[in-house]
Each structure stands twice: as C-alpha cells, then as structure tokens.
Amino acid sequence: MDWKTSTRDMRADLRALNALLPETNRDFSALTKTAKAEGPLDAKTREFVALSIAIADRCEPCVAFHVEALKRAGGTRAELASVLAIAIQMGGGPSLMYAAKTLACWDELAGRHDAAA
Questions:
Q1: CA–CA separation, 32 vs 76, rounded Å?
Q2: Any idea what the CATH number is for the domain that residue 96 is in?
Q3: How many domains does the chain have?
Q4: Is residue 29 part of a domain?
Q5: Is 70 part of any domain?
Q6: What is the domain extent for residue 94?
C-alpha cells in the first residue's frame, strides 16, 4: 500500500464531501476541535487513543491521519510499538493485521527505507 498517495487521495475525497455537506463538515470540525482541546491528556496521548480506535475499527485512512498527527505530537516508533501491542491484545487477530499495517504506514510516512530497523 502507498500510504502517502492513499492519504492524499482521501483528503481530496474529503474536500469533495465537505463541499457537498458544508454544515455537516462545520459541525464535525467543531466536534473535532473540542475533542482535541488541551485538557488532562496531552496531544500525543489523545492521538494514541485515536490510533488505537482506528486500528480496532480497521479504518485505513484514520490510521494514516492519526499516524501523521502522532508524529507531529512527538510520538516515537518505540511508543507506537507499545500501543500496537495493546491493540493486538485487545483485538486479537484482526488487530494484529492492522497493527502491521499501522507500522508500515509509520515507516512510509517517516521515510524509513529499512523497515526492519
């Protein structure tokens, strides 16, 4: 899978949907802003939670968007591994498969050419 192309294409699809449904987009954006507001959990922790839900729900575009946000929030590959272990434990085999996809997404978006490192 080409995560960068997929993410770019999903953003284009979302722009088209948002143009068709501006009120829905406005309200969803307000919800997102409220949910991401500073509080007891820092941005990185909130992104780990969102990423875990994306894995559990098997939402590939969500995985990519939250990996990007997690990287911006200062998440590390080692921290990601810890979250992936919990996602696998909670979701069993299907989460194992999406954990592998999430790691591939991280590596691609981080520009890693040696995924084994």
A1: 23
A2: 1.20.1290.10
A3: 1
A4: yes
A5: yes
A6: 3-109
Question: Looking at the domain assignment, is residue 115 inside a domain?
Answer: no
Q: For residue range 14-34, what is the model confidence (pLDDT) as tens digits?
A: 999 999 999 999 999 999 999
Residue type, 69: A
HEC string for 14-80: HHHHHHHCHHHHHHHHHHHHHHCCCCCCCHHHHHHHHHHHHHHHCCHHHHHHHHHHHHHCCCCHHHH
Q: Please tell me the distance from the alpha carbon of residue 113 to that of residue 117, in angstroms, as a whole number.
A: 9
Amino acid symbol at 27: D
- State how far the alpha carbon of 58 is from the alpha carbons of 22, 34, 53, 98, in Å: 26, 24, 8, 7
User: pLDDT for 55-96, tens place per residue?
Assistant: 988 899 999 999 999 999 999 999 999 999 998 888 888 888
